[in-house]
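With this grant's support, we have settled on a layout for protein records. An illustrative entry appears below exactly as we store it:
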Amino acid sequence: MFKLFQKTPVISTKDLADKLEQSITLLDVRTPEEYRRGHIAKAVNYPLNKINRYQGKEKEVYVICQSGMRSKQAAKILKQKGYEATNVQGGMNRWQGPTRGGK
């Protein structure tokens, strides 16, 4: 079966908060400046313009940005590379949990 038009899986920020209790890979695809202003502690900054170079060992990744649009693009690119990428719906705009600034 051809999977070109497969929908990107999504997760709510509330469900993401529960997932963070486990060992997951969360990629923040915002710019380094946006990331420094405030990010989820477990998130690794991997800007959208570099996502095609991503080479993580884990197959399952969660992707977040500010609103959910860039992370959706990033998830599509990661899926083409063979990752099981899940987009965080609403991004940091909807995130209610703690954030940290800086790198």
In short: The chain has a mean pLDDT of 94. The helical segments are 13-19, 32-37, 69-80, 91-94. The first strand starts at residue 10 and ends at 11.
